């Protein structure tokens, strides 16, 4: 049931965002758009298969185990569900933010995460482009957080669904009215806010780490409001990976294991 709920929400959001991108693009799509889509969606399919064959719905399984055995801070302290659920959701979002920061600052994690940043354009499919090993490490990190707090299963299901939808939305090549963007980004990560994070300029790459809530970047001083070159003029991707012919599926899967100078 958990998988069905997540997939239904994901595909619904994906279709809606794809239609919005088509109608209101922020940047003119490059000539290699469909080749990129094939690669990014292939990575998504591979991620789903690998996760289902290995860890499965690990965070949900951890939540069910914690609930059945009274494991975690919420269970030990007897925190009511109405309080534990929103706190658990916020902690999970903060945990994902922390993981994202670590993926930029720890060289081993960056090797995996660069697969996501090597995309030469940013659109909704970029939000599905993560190396399978990074997906598995993320799942294990969420298991640790869920067990430590004893977050309930329904909160985990809700968070996973929101996180997947937010990743697609925040990466959208979508032109929102400036006033609406300013209003939304007070709470959630908007496409304009997250696009800065995919700039080729390191100071902009290392900013705006949020996937869903924008509060963490404001709180910890990692928010950059706009790219220096503007959204139309900014260069997206990584300076060391500019050749589209070398960004196919096989090359991306091997990218973390290539020898190169430290970032």
Give helix and strand order, one letter per element, not per position.
HHHHHHHHHHHHHH
The structural class is: mainly alpha
State the low-pLDDT regions, or none. Answer: none
Mean pLDDT: 94
What's the story with the biggest beta sheet? Answer: none
User: Share of helix among residues?
Assistant: 55-70%
Overall 3D form: globular
How large is the count of helical segments? 14
Task: Give the arrangement of secondary structure elements.
Blueprint: H1 2-23, H2 33-53, H3 58-69, H4 73-77, H5 81-105, H6 107-117, H7 132-149, H8 153-170, H9 178-184, H10 191-195, H11 202-205, H12 215-219, H13 230-233, H14 249-254
Helix pairs in contact: 1-8, 3-7, 3-8, 5-6, 5-7, 5-8
GO molecular function: glyceryl-ether monooxygenase activity; iron ion binding
Domain Fatty acid hydroxylase: 87-222
Protein name: Sterol desaturase family protein
């Amino acid at each position: 049931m958990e998988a069905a709920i997540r997939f239904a929400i994901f595909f619904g959001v994906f279709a809606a965002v794809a239609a919005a991108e088509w109608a209101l693009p922020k940047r003119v799509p490059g000539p290699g758009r469909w080749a990129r889509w094939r690669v990014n969606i292939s990575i998504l399919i591979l991620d789903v298969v690998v996760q289902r064959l290995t860890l499965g719905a690990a965070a949900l399984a951890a939540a069910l185990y914690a609930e059945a055995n009274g494991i975690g801070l919420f269970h030990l302290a007897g925190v009511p569900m109405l309080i534990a659920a929103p706190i658990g959701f916020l902690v999970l979002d903060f945990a994902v933010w922390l993981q994202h920061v670590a993926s930029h600052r720890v060289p081993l994690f960056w090797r995996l995460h660069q697969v996501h940043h090597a995309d030469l354009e940013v659109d909704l499919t970029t939000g599905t482009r993560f190396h399978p090993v990074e997906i598995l490490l993320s799942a294990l990190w969420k298991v640790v957080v869920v067990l430590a707090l004893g977050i309930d299963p329904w909160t985990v299901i809700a968070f996973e669904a929101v996180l997947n939808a937010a990743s697609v939305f925040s990466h959208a090549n979508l032109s929102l009215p400036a006033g609406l963007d300013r209003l939304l980004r007070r709470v959630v990560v908007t496409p304009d806010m997250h696009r800065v994070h995919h700039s080729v300029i390191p100071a902009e790459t290392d900013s705006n780490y949020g996937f869903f809530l924008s509060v963490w970047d404001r709180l910890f001083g990692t928010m950059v409001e706009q790219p220096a070159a503007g959204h139309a003029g900014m260069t997206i991707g990584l300076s060391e990976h500019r050749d589209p012919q070398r960004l196919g599926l096989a090359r991306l899967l091997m990218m973390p294991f290539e020898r190169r100078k430290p970032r």
